[in-house]
Design goal:
Blueprint lengths: L4 E4 L4 E2 L5 E2 L3 E7 L9 E5 L8 H4 L16 E5 L14 E2 L4 E2 L9 H14 L5 E7 L1 H12 L4 E7 L7 H15 L13 H15 L2 H8 L11 H14 L4 H12 L10 H5 L5 E7 L7 H10 L3 E6 L7 H4 L1 H10 L4
Parallel strand pairs: 5-6, 5-9, 9-10, 10-11, 11-12
Antiparallel strand pairs: 1-4, 2-3, 4-6, 7-8
Length: 339
């Protein structure tokens, strides 16, 4: 079992917004051993509220006896800046004030996250990535990094992601932030600030991660006489509580804004021109029932990334299919010889 590693970089990171993030810390996990040719690196980029241990949240795809495994590969996953699992985040001490950042934490863009990954790769003496993989917000990081350093990765796999975050996605994120900001405790700037609001925000988010048929399949009532206390209502509350016990509202607000900021075309003339910079062999995968990152967005990536293939996974799980459909993902990784 790999343990969380902490790299105190000593670097103050110049952010895309123009702000400076002092004394950057990066939390990360590694599994396996870098071979002599340094040719076996698989770098996993995690999504919104995940941590840097993909064996916990991508079971069936990453770990012993799976297609991405430490016997064959040197697996790296870094906790994104702003997240509360090891990297600099809103609960970290601001060296300029001696107090946690809380709501004063600066905006971190997807591009800033990619720049932090580049710093860590250099620190780990990685010269080339065999496969760079990510879904959802993780896929956004994959695209940004592949544009910044097009010769650094041999293959990329992006699942249920996009080149620019959509108005629909931003609307969901803003609705979640409204729930958190409606909780007055958020403005008290304490570790538990905004916790009740974040529970409501998670419930809203979950609807976008699923689909009509997901709820119909897993949460349908069997009792015809029920008037209250529905199974799905209990499920929504449970998911809100579950996240509130492991995350904080300041990271949630900040990372949702990070996702909103995603646009690979910014400062690069156009989205199409930016995607044409990618040199890696790319596989773009859609989840058929995904309403948050619909298949049109991955088809667009395929049409504008020169060396790319496209696949569609039929799933009842909606957007979360990128995490749960590990068997078809494994088959597609092997089919397209990405490892």
């Amino acid at each position: 079992m790999s343990k969380l590693k902490i790299w105190e970089t000593g670097i103050s990171l110049n952010l895309e917004s123009g702000d400076l993030l002092p004394n950057l810390t990066i939390g990360y996990h590694t599994f396996g051993t870098l071979n002599k040719l340094k040719s076996n690196v698989v770098w996993v980029c995690h999504a919104f509220t995940a941590n840097s241990n993909p064996t916990e949240w991508w079971t069936g795809l990453v770990g012993n006896d799976f297609v991405i495994n430490p016997k064959e590969h040197f697996i790296v996953c870094a906790n994104i800046i702003g997240s509360c699992y090891g990297s600099t985040n809103p609960l970290s001490l601001n060296p300029l004030t001696g107090k946690p950042f809380y709501s004063a934490f600066p905006l971190i863009t997807i591009r800033d996250m990619a720049k932090a990954h580049i710093l860590l790769a250099k620190q780990l003496k990685i010269d080339k990535i065999k496969l760079l993989i990510g879904g959802s917000m993780g896929g956004q990081q994959v695209l940004e990094w592949s544009i910044i350093q097009p010769d650094f990765m041999e293959n990329i796999l992006v699942i249920a992601t996009n080149a620019v975050h959509s108005p629909f996605g931003i609307a969901f994120n803003e609705s979640q932030r409204m729930s958190i900001l409606a909780d007055a405790s958020y403005f008290k700037n304490t570790q538990d600030g905004g916790k009740l609001g974040m529970k409501a925000a998670r419930s809203t988010a979950l609807i976008s991660y699923r689909s009509y048929n997901t709820y119909l399949h897993f949460q349908k009532e069997t009792e015809t006489e029920k008037l209250d206390d529905y199974k799905v209502a209990s499920y929504q509350r449970y998911q809100g509580d579950k996240l509130a016990n492991r995350f904080n509202a300041y990271s949630y607000v900040g990372l949702s804004k990070s996702m909103d900021s995603h646009n690979v075309g910014r400062t690069r003339n156009s989205i199409e021109e930016a995607l044409k910079k990618i040199k890696a062999k790319a596989l773009c995968i859609s989840i058929k029932s995904d309403i948050l990152f619909p298949k049109e967005e991955q088809k667009y990536l395929h049409e504008n990334i020169e060396h790319s293939k496209y696949e569609l996974i039929d799933s009842v799980y909606g957007h979360d299919g990128f995490l749960l459909e590990t068997k078809p993902l494994t088959k597609l990784i092997l089919k397209h010889k990405l490892l």
